[in-house]
Design brief:
By secondary structure, the protein is of the alpha+beta class. Helices cover about 35% and strands about 20% of the residues. It has 19 helices and 22 strands. Strands 1, 2, 14, 15, 18 and 19 form a six-stranded mixed beta sheet that branches. Strands 4, 5, 6, 7, 8 and 9 form a six-stranded antiparallel beta sheet that branches. A six-stranded mixed beta sheet has the order 11-12-13-16-17-22, sandwiched between helices. The chain is globular and about 70 Å long. This is S41 family peptidase.
Length: about 525
């Protein structure tokens, strides 16, 4: 998957907003009554007809309709959105949890399609494609020196399951060109990044979004952790902007006892629907901790709220985003759709955690910047809590509504005041590209390197720190990294490990210095 280079670190928060926009979708059919006739509807139709028939210039009325729909939805709430036909397939694919393709992570490097890494067990890896390879042709279609957009590349590399494609590859490390024939296959898009043990009897599971496949991925990971001896589980929902409500509910059910309330929804007609836990949970007794931050939203808040309000475990981190609205996807008949807010959800204690949305623009979504300016990222007491919105958990503890889940244990942002930009920079895709390009200069040097020797290579000198400093300067970014060498090298080392070895080893390195994990394990 190509990742566009982004040079402003705060964009991480904006990226999470895309997940929030997807919302916690109710899997129910659209209501035909939504499309009832009215005088205003007829007025709009007549206006479009008049423009098509009589307007002096040729106008694409489809674009006018799109603007009209967006304008109407903008008057509602920030999560009622229009989805153009061209975006439907990509969103559905992401939320379904798989796609059909050749199985590579890639980006356009110097106008050449470079393979960052083939996806394990995918068609490309099976065909012998390696990190650093350039794909020159797909069948007879030239892919280099073309300035192809991401969407174009996706459409070229994707296809029907079982369909064949002939790729012409240039392997720089061997200075040779060759062809491979492979068959496209179903490629999973993981929503559960990792499930590993982080201490004796302590398991860790990270969920990046709630897709159709998330519950099964989670259950597989949780089952393995139990087999590995986990008596305690940490569920990491940081940067998780949400997704399907049903997936979050199913995961909560694994930890709650029969008939404990998970979530309630209430629609325009005041109809309340309550979802209770069943007796099928496989982890109803072990200790549970949920990690959240300012970009944990929607379905993440449902899961965190269910654990917190039932006094099933502790919520650790920083106040979550504050999205308590439920959307239903409704097709518009031309391949496009809208996601319309049809209900509010409430945690078991009765909290609505939807934050105010008078501002429906980008400021609504940029929680990191607002909370940084208020000081809330560093001091728990800076969070604005409405005393009038007090609720009680199952055991009588006070919790608050009105704008996100407030954690039981506060952990400030990782990085001192003045270092926020560096931390976000090192968590961005820019590090991914830098490491790829460093490896690409001399892959033979790293071909058979051990994990221990790699660590010595990265940490023994300031070579890679200095190279990275030059790299970001050439990219137009100006950071004073001199006083933050340790954190830069820490993230660089982890990314080298990810690209040369695997995700599991990468997470073991990252989590070792994670402040929230340290807080949980310190007990």
């Amino acid at each position: 998957m190509k990742m566009n280079k982004v040079y402003f670190p705060i964009i991480i928060a904006v990226a999470v907003a895309i997940g929030i926009l997807m919302g916690s979708k109710l899997s129910t059919p659209s209501d035909p009554a939504f499309f009832t006739k009215s005088a205003n509807k007829n007025k709009l139709n007549k206006l479009i007809d008049l423009i098509e028939k009589d307007y002096v210039d040729t106008i694409n009325t489809d674009s006018i309709v799109d603007l009209t729909v967006n304008g109407i939805l903008a008057q509602l709430d920030p999560h009622s959105v229009y989805i153009p036909k061209k975006d439907i397939a990509g969103i559905e694919q992401s939320m379904r949890g798989d796609f059909v393709g050749i199985g590579i992570n890639f980006y356009m490097y110097n106008d050449s399609l470079a393979v960052i890494k083939p996806i394990p067990f995918g068609p490309s890896e099976k065909a012998g494609i390696k990190a650093g390879d350039r794909i020159l042709f797909a069948n007879k279609l030239q892919l280099y020196n073309k300035k192809l957009e991401t969407d174009s590349l996706f459409s070229i590399l994707k296809g029907e399951e079982g369909s064949s494609v002939k790729l012409t590859i240039f392997r720089k490390s061997e200075n040779r060109k060759f062809a491979v024939n492979l068959k496209r296959d179903v490629i999973p898009i993981k929503s559960v990044d990792i499930a590993i043990m982080v201490a004796d009897a302590v398991g860790y599971i990270k969920i990046n979004r709630f897709a159709e496949s998330t519950y099964q991925e989670f259950l597989k990971g949780l089952t393995q952790l139990k087999a590995d001896g986990a008596k305690e589980v940490i569920i990491d929902l940081r940067e998780n902007g949400g997704g399907y409500l049903e997936s979050a509910v199913a995961i909560a059910d694994e930890f709650l006892k029969k008939d404990e309330l998970i979530v309630k929804t209430k629609n325009k007609k005041e109809l309340v629907s309550s979802t209770l836990a069943t007796d099928k949970g496989i982890f109803e007794n072990g200790k549970v901790t949920v990690l959240i931050n300012e970009n944990s939203a929607s379905a993440s808040e449902i899961l965190a709220g269910a654990i917190q309000d039932n006094d099933r475990g502790a919520v650790v981190g920083r106040r979550s985003f504050g999205k308590g609205l439920v959307q239903r996807e409704m097709p518009l008949g031309d391949g496009s759709a809208i996601r319309l807010t049809v209900a509010r959800y409430y945690t078991p204690s009765g909290r609505s955690i939807q934050k105010p949305y008078e501002d429906k623009g980008q400021n609504y979504f940029n929680e990191f910047e607002k909370r940084f300016e208020s000081g809330e990222l560093y001091e728990k007491d800076k969070a604005k809590i409405a005393d009038s919105l007090k609720f009680k958990t199952k055991n009588g503890r006070i919790v608050y509504g009105g704008g996100g889940i407030i954690p039981d244990v506060f952990v400030p942002f990782e990085g001192k005041h003045g270092e926020e930009g560096t931390t976000l920079l090192m968590q961005s895709g820019l590090v991914n590209y830098f490491v790829f390009e460093q490896l690409d200069q001399n892959r033979k040097k790293f071909e058979n390197i051990s994990i221990d020797d790699l660590e010595k290579e990265i940490k023994s000198t300031y070579l890679y720190f200095n190279n990275f400093n030059q790299y970001i300067s050439k990219s137009g970014l100006f950071f004073n990294l001199g006083s933050q060498k340790d954190i830069v090298i820490y993230y660089l080392h982890a990314e080298f490990v990810r690209q040369l070895f695997d995700e599991t080893t990468y997470f073991k390195i990252i989590l070792k210095e994670d402040e929230m994990i340290k807080k949980v394990l310190k007990k």
